[in-house]
Amino acid sequence: MTQTPEARLAEAGHAIPQAAAPIAAYVPTVQVGKLLHISGQVSFKDGAVVTGRVGETMDVEAGKAAAELCGLMLIAQMKAALGDLSRVERIVKLGVFVTSTPDFTDQPLVANGASELMLLAFGDAGRHARSAVGVPALPRGAAVEVDAVIAIRD
């Protein structure tokens, strides 16, 4: 793949948003050595947090779309921290939190929204380890939140 992550995303119809500012006492990213830790990112659509509960007010596809938007925000944070997405060596791990009903068990399908976006943007370097966890509530009523660990080049 010779295209940049930005070009691959644009070709698929995705625009990288402005990186969101923290809403509490934390920073969006912390670099330790060659690892970039990215705080949990929620999904935004038309300037508002995507809210809902998968299995109640949202179906799997809507949850997956929300996870994809979280992935775009992760990429926005990478770009803000690194200046250039070509510095991303590997997506190491995603942690995906899905607001869902107690009987909903398809969190991995929802999480695919973020995972598939990383593969689209970064190719083989986008393959990662992952957790997909159901939770009763997330900040601001968000439907999905995703955090990440990224390996970076100097």
From TrEMBL:
A Pfam family hit: YjgF_endoribonc
Domain Endoribonuclease L-PSP/chorismate mutase-like stretches: 6-140
Gene3D superfamilies xref list: RutC-like
InterPro entries on file: Endoribo_LPSP/chorism_mut-like, RutC-like_sf
Organism superkingdom: Bacteria
PANTHER family associated with the record: ENDORIBONUCLEASE L-PSP_CHORISMATE MUTASE-LIKE DOMAIN-CONTAINING PROTEIN (PTHR43760:SF1), ENDORIBONUCLEASE-RELATED (PTHR43760)
Name recorded for this polypeptide: RidA family protein
